[in-house]
Amino acid sequence: MRLVESGTLSINPLKVVAKTPLLHVILRYSLPTVNFLHRLTLAAVCALALLSRCLVSAEEPPAKVDDKSIPGHSSNGEAFNEGPRQAAVLMEGTGNVSFPVTTSNAQAQKFFTQGVGQLHGFWYLEAERSFRQAAALDPECAMAYWGMAMANINTPKRAADFMKLAVAKKAKASRREQVWIDAYSKFYADSKIDENGRRNALVRSLEDLIYEFPDDIEAKAFLVFHIWDNKQHGLSLPSRLAVDALARQVLAVNPMHPVHHYLIHLWNGAEGDKRAIAAAAHCGQAAPAIAHMWHMSGHTFSNLHRYGDAAWQQEASARVDHAYMTTARIMPEQIHNYAHNNDWLVKNLTYVGRVHDAIDLAKNMIELPRLGPNQSYAYDMGRERLLNTLVTYELWDDLIALRDSMYLAPAEKPEVETKRLSAFGVAYFKRDDTTHGEEVIKSLQAQLKKAREERIAAADAAEIKAKTDKKTDEQIATAMATAMRGFAYRISTAEAAIAEVQLYRALAEGKTDEAKTFLAQARDISSERKARIQFALGDEAGAVKLAREASDPDAAQVQPLANLANLLWQSKQPDAARETFEKLRKLSADIDLDMPIFDRLAPIAADLKLPADWRVQAIAAKDVGERPDIKTLGPFRWHPYPAPVWNLVDQHGVPQSLAAHHGHPVLVVFYLGSGCARCIEQLNIFAPLNQDFSAAGISIIAVSRDSADGLQRTFEKSKEASGFPFPILSDFSLDAFKAYRAYDDFENMPLHGAFLIDGDGQVRWQNISYQPFREAQWLLGESKRLLSVPAGS
Question: How many alpha carbons fall within 13 Å on the CB side of residue 273?
Fold first, then answer.
C-alpha cells in the first residue's frame, strides 16, 4: 500500500495512523468494547483524512533549501550560526565603562555596556553573547549589531555581516552612534581596498568622532587600541608616549577604566615594560571577571624578570577562567588565550621553583578535552611543558613512570616523538637501566632511517611530477631540493637526539672520550645540563663558565642560579658559591626543596649554619595593586562540570534516565529529529562504531526532539536493516536540550549537541553547534584518552 512518495519518505496511511500518537491511543486503549470491524472502519476514516493531507502536501513544489532552512542553522543568516547561541547573564567585574546607546530597554543598555567592557578585555565570546542579548531585548538597537561586529575583529567576514545590520538600523540611532557605525562600516565594507589604507582611515574616523564628541572617552579608548593594533599589522607607531597621553585622558575621567589593558600592550617589549607597571597594577582589578585582564599584567612582570609576580597574575587568570568555565559550561579550548596563559604560567612556575605546581598544571593541560582533530593547542603545550620541567629538574623516576600514561604517550608528529624518546633515553641511562636505554636508541635510529627513506621518496615523487609537467632540468632539481628540504629539521633532530642518548650511555659506562664526541654532536641540551656534563668530564672551569653564562643574563630564575652555586662549590670556589647561594635565597620563598638541584645545595647551607629549610619569606611588592586572595578567584585546575540529570522515554514509552548509567560512561548525542538529514547522517556514522564504543565501556544514547511515537521514523532511516544499535530517546519538551545548553535561547530552537559523560556524571567533552559532530572515530580515541584519568586527578 505504498501510495505516496515524498522525497525519501514512503507514506503508508495505515502505518501513519498507527504511528500518530492520538490515533494510536484511540485505537488501542479508548475502544476496548468496540469490535474489530468498527475499529478498522475508524482507522480507515482517519487514514483517508491523513492521506488527503499527504497528497496535497505531495503536490506542492519542494521548498528551496538554504542555510536558513537547515535544522540548527540560524534564521537570521550565516553570521549567526557561529558564536554564542545561549543567553547572556549580567556579570559583575567586566569593566567600569559608560556607553549609552539608543534603546528604550534598560536591560538592553546594561548588556550593551557589559559587552563593551568585555571587548576591552578581548573576551570576544562573551562580548558577542552580551550584544546578542541586547539585540534580543531590543532588535532595533543598531549599536548591538555594531558590538557583534566588534566582537569578531578576528573573523572579518562575520564582522562585516553584522556591521551591515548595524547600518540598516542606524536611522533610529543618535548622531553619535551613527558616526560610530559609519567609522567601522567603512573599515569592513570593502575588503578589496588596501588593508593598511582602511586601518589608517579608521584611525582618522575615530579622531573625527572625538573632535565632534570630545567627552566620549570610549572613542579615545578604542583609538588607543587601534593605533597599537595597527602597529601589530605592520603600520608605524611614531610615538608611544603620544598614545599613552591619549589613554591618560581616559584615566583622568575614569581611573579604573580597562584601557589599562591597552597600555600594557603599548609598552610591552622594547624595554618599555617598566612604563607599564602602573597599568599592570590595575589591569586585572579593573575587570576582575575577565581572565585575560589578569593575564596581561603577567606580560609586564615577566619581561621585567619578576617571575613571582608574573606567576601570580597568570595563576589568577587561570583560576578566573576555571571558575567561568564551570559556570558557563564551555570547554577550555573555546576560551581565547587560555592555553597561552597556562603555558606561560607553567614556565614561570618553573622559574620560581614551584615545580610540583608546574607539573600539576602541565598535566591538567594534557587532560583537557580537545575540540576536534588538529585542535589540541593546550594538549601540545602541556606535553612540551611537562617534558621540559621533568628534564630540567632531573626528575628521572617521575619521567619514566609516565611513559605508558596518557601524559607522555607516543606523539604523532615525528619531531615531537623524537624529543620524547630522547628524554626517556637520558632518564634510563641516568638510572642505570641499560636495557631500556638501548631500546630507545634503536627506536631513535629507526626514526632516523624512516625520515631518510621518506626524504628520498619525496624527492623521487617531485622528480616524476616535474618531468611529467615537462619542467627544465633546473626546475626539476629545484623541485627535488624543495621536497627534501622539508625533512631537514626532522632528520637533524633525530641525529642530535641519538647523540644525546649515546652521550649519557657513554657517561654511565665511564667512556670519557666517547662522551666528548657525542657532546659535540648533541644539540638540544640546556646550558645548565651541558655544564654539569662538562664538569663530569673533568672540565671544571668550562662548566662554571657555561653555568655562569646561563645564569647571569636572567639571574631571577632559580634553577640556573642553583646550578651555578652547586658547580662553584664543587669546583672549590666557596666564596663565589656562598655569594651565589645568597642571591638564590632572596628568590627562594616558593621553591620546592625536594628537587635534586636544591638538595645538592645542602653542604652550602650547612656551611652557612642555616636550617634544612633555608628558604626566606618574600617581601611583598608595593607596585602590584591590591590583590585579592587568589584562592577566591577560582580553582587552580580545570575540572569537568556535572551533567544535568534527565529522565526520558524511548520509542516504546519505556523510561530511561542518566542515573541508570551511573558508574558507566555514556556518549549522549542530541539530534534534531528524523526530518534532519544531517542528523541521520551523523547517527549512521556513529552506528558502525557502537561496538567499539561499547568495548571501551562507553554506551551511546541518542536524544531526539521527536515525540516518542515519532522516533520510529529515525530507526527506519538507519543504513542497517535492524535499525540503529543504540537507544533513541524522546525529548519532545526540549527540556534536556535546554538543560545541556544545546539550545539557541535567542531564536528558541534546539541545536546539535554531543556530550561524553563519565561514570561519575561529569561532562568530559562536549560539542554544541549548528551542525552535527561527525568525527566519530576521532571521538572514540579522545574518549578513551579522557576517561583513562579520573576527573580532577
Answer: 17
Q: Which residues of 213-242 are buried (b: 16+ CB within 10 A; e: fewer)?
A: eeebbbbbbbbbbbbbbbeeeeeeeeebee
- Residue 47 is predicted with a pLDDT of 38
Q: Are 221 and 262 in contact (CB under 8 A)?
A: yes
User: pLDDT tens digit string along 29-83?
Assistant: 333 333 433 333 333 333 333 333 333 333 333 334 455 578 999 999 999 999 9
Res 60: pLDDT: 34
DSSP letter string over 538-607? T-HHHHHHHHHHHHGGGTT-HHHHHHHHHHHHHTT-HHHHHHHHHHHHTTGGG--TTSHHHHTTHHHHHH
Phi (first) and psi of residue 591, to 5 degrees: -75, 150
- Cell 622539508 sits at which residue? 486
End-to-end CA distance of the chain: 60
265 Cβ partners below 8 Å, 6+ apart? 228, 296
Which residue bears the cell 535544522? Answer: 71
Q: What is the DSSP letter of 659?
A: G
User: Taking the model in full, what pTM does it have?
Assistant: 0.89
The confidence score (pLDDT) of residue 336 equals 83
Rounded distance, CA 705 to CA 672, Å? 6
Rounded to whole angstroms, the Cα distance separating 159 from 150 reads: 7
Low-confidence ranges of the chain (pLDDT < 50): 1-65
Q: Where are the alpha helices (DSSP H) in 216-306?
A: 217-232, 240-253, 260-267, 277-280, 283-286, 291-303
pLDDT of res. 791: 80
DSSP letter (8 states) at residue 370:
P
| C-alpha cell of residue 161 | 555581516
122 sits in which H/E element? none
Task: Give CA–CA dist 448/452, Å, rounded.
Answer: 6
Full DSSP string of 171-197: GGS-HHHHHHHHHHHHHHH-TTS-HHH
Helix (H, G, I), strand (E, B) or coil at 704: strand
Query: Cα dihedral sign for 307, 308, 311, 312?
Result: negative
Question: Phi/psi class of residue 539: alpha, beta or left (left: φ > 0; alpha: ψ in -120 to 50)?
Answer: beta
- Residue type at position 527: S
SS3 string of 49-78?
HHHHHHHHHHHCCCCCCCHHHCCCCCCCCH
Helices (H), 332-410: 338-352, 355-367, 377-392, 396-401
3-state secondary structure of 395: coil
Closest residue by Cα to residue 352 from 73, 618, 711, 51: 618
What pLDDT score does 340 carry? 96
* 377 close to 339: Cβ distance less than 8 angstroms: yes
For the purposes of burial, counting CB atoms within 10 Å of the CB of 440, is it exposed (0-12), middle (13-18) or buried (19 or more)? buried
Cell representation of residue 212: 565632534
Residue 270: the pLDDT is 65
DSSP category for residue 671: E
pLDDT at position 638 is 96
pLDDT for position 793: 61
CB 753 within 8 A of CB 767: yes
- Yes or no: say if 719 and 629 are a contact pair by the CB < 8 Å rule: no
The answer to whether the CB of 497 falls within 8 A of the CB of 422 is yes
Cβ–Cβ contacts within 10 Å for residue 38, how many?
11
- Tell me whether strands 666-671 and 752-757 are parallel, antiparallel or unpaired: antiparallel
Reduce the DSSP state of residue 790 to 3 states and report it: coil
DSSP 639: -
Chain centroid offset of residue 224 CA:
28
Given a contact cutoff of 8 angstroms between Cβ atoms, the answer to whether 72 and 78 are in contact is no
